[in-house]
Amino acid sequence: QRRVHGETYNGRHHQQLHSVHQRLRKTSTSATMRTLCILLVLLVVVCVFIAQHPAHACNFSSCWAGCQADHSINFRRAYCDGQHCVCVFVTGG
Questions:
Q1: How far apart are CA 35 and CA 61, in angstroms?
Q2: How far apart are CA 80 and CA 63, in angstroms?
Q3: pLDDT: which is higher, 82 or 28
Q4: What percent of the chain is modeled with pLDDT above 90?
Q5: What is the pLDDT, as a whole number, of residue 64?
Q6: How many C-beta atoms lie closer than 10 Å to residue 26's C-beta?
Q7: Rounded to whole angstroms, how far apart are CA atoms 41 and 56?
Q8: What InterPro entries does the record point to (predicted)?
Q9: Which residues contact 57 (CB under 8 A, 6 or more apart)?
Q10: Residue by residue, what is the 3-state secondary structure of the chain?
């Protein structure tokens, strides 16, 4: 036994402090891992949302329908070139 700050210090105190430190370290690690998992899930959700809703993208279905309505019998095909709809049609001749 030895005296530290006026109190008797023995191996039992050391074991108790070590046990508390171990529990705090485990709790801190699990909280950190939980936080990282939540952030990873949020990142995935945001990336999936952005991938499914690109800004100003050409909607192929509406492009096709619009071209078909505008060019009726002369309409051949439609496709998206970046964010622009391109209609392919036959001109009378």
A1: 41
A2: 7
A3: 82
A4: 32
A5: 92
A6: 10
A7: 26
A8: Scorpion_toxin-like_sf (IPR036574), Termicin (IPR024723)
A9: 80, 83
A10: CEEECCEEECHHHHHHHHHHHHHHHHHHHHHHHHHHHHHHHHHHHHHHHHHHCCCCCCCHHHHHHHHHHHHHHHEEEEEEECCEEEEEECCCC
Q: Answer yes or no: are the C-beta atoms of 36 and 47 closer than 8 Å.
A: no
The pLDDT tens digits for 21-59 are 777 676 677 888 889 999 999 999 998 888 877 667 788
44 vs 40, 48, 54, 77, CA distance in Å?
A: 6, 6, 16, 36
Residues 86/78, Cβ–Cβ less than 8 Å: yes
Residue in 27, 23, 82 with CA at minimum distance from that of residue 57: 82
Are 67 and 89 in contact by the 8 Å Cβ rule? The answer is yes
Beta-bridge partner residues of 4: 7
Kindly report the number of other CB atoms within 10 A of residue 86's CB atom.
13
